[in-house]
Amino acid sequence: MIRIERHPLVRRDLRELARHVADVSGDPGAAERRLDQVDALVADILANPTLGTGLSANLPGWRVRHGGVDRRITIVFRLTGAGDCLQIALVAFGGQNWVDMAPDRSDTFAKG
Questions:
Q1: Is the pTM of this model over 0.85?
Q2: What is d(CA 34, CA 53) in angstroms, rounded to the nearest whole number?
Q3: 63-67, strands of its sheet edge to edge
C-alpha cells in the first residue's frame, strides 16, 4: 500500500482553493465539488503514479498532473524511490503560478 505524505502547506492550498471557488461562484457546494475533484485526482495518481509530465532537471523525480473540470486542478507529486510513498508538494487551482512554487515545496521533502 502506498502512503501519502503531503507538504505542510497543502492543507492551506486546499482551504484557499475552496474559499476562492465559493467566493467566485457564490456556491459553497461548488467548493465541495472541487475538493472532491482533488480527491479523485489523487486517487488517479495513486492508481498510476508514473503518469504525468516530468518536471525540469531542477526537480528530478517530480511530476505534475492536471485534472478536475476543465483540468483546472494541478498536483505536483513524486513517488519515492522505494515506491511506498506518494509525496504531494502542492495543489494549485486555475491560474496559480505552481511552476514557481514547486521548487521551494519540493525541497521540504527528503530525497526520495
A1: yes
A2: 22
A3: 3-6, 85-93, 73-79, 63-67, 53-54
Q: How far apart are CA 85 and CA 1, in angstroms?
A: 9
As to burial, measured by CB atoms within 10 angstroms (0-12 exposed, 13-18 middle, 19+ buried), residue 41 is buried
Residue pLDDT, tens place only, 12-71: 999 999 999 999 999 999 999 999 999 999 999 999 999 999 998 778 899 999 999 999
Q: Residues 6 or more apart from 105 whose CB is under 8 A from it?
A: 7, 9, 76, 89, 90
Q: How far apart are CA 50 and CA 94, in angstroms?
A: 23
